[in-house]
Amino acid sequence: MQLSVSHTTRYEFSEPVVHGLQRLRLKPKSTQGQKVLDWKMVLEGAEEQVEYEDQHHNSTTLVSVEPGTATVTITCTGKIDTADNSGIIGRHSGHMPLWAFLSQTPLTRPGPKMRALASSIDSKEQGKLDTLHELSRLVLEEVRYEIGRTEVDTPAEEAMAAGHGVCQDHAHIFIGAARLLGIPARYVSGYLMMDDRIDQEAGHGWAEAFVDGLGWVGFDVSNGICPDARYVRVATGCDYREAAPVTGISYGPGESVLAVSLAVEQHLSEQ
User: What is the pTM for the complete model shown?
Assistant: First the structure.
């Protein structure tokens, strides 16, 4: 399947920016199950400084905000060829050793609720893949998908205790619990082509866990499935902070307002 993506991120500052830097992880990976056919990024109010691959093999662009600007716009468009591999990504790659994905972060660190969830799964009586499917099911059962109740910096245990959250919270809870069970796990940020609409308010997030004999396998807890051809992997990390599409700092007297527009649809070749 070929997917077309159009993603615009716009920052409007109440006062001109004195100095600003942003780290962009917006270009999808060419990995097993997907190939980037075309990708273009246009900057307004900012200038590219350097492009590189980070420790997770994420395509990363560092940009500086033009001094005195009041608006920064980042527009990405492209086409990606995807396949349905039942969520299987395969062998581990990147500069991070596999054992690094067993360490908890402030966003994934378990508390009593997550520990109870992990201990309710009898991982010794079933294979690792079955254990992960069961974990995904339990996270969605315990934490309702509900927007507007958590923030990007909400820890997994807090969302678990509250009983509601979004895809990022589901992924962090899954990752933290999988690590408790001794299974390496990581966060994935990307895009999902929705069945009922093209325009979306934000990108998507899910988790991947490492299974012997298969490699990395994806789990979209919020939708209760393994990623298929409708998914585009953009960046991975130990948690959302390492895979976030845009991170950065700005200096100036004012505040900023963020607006995002995103469209993901199947690309139909002209005959």
Answer: 0.93
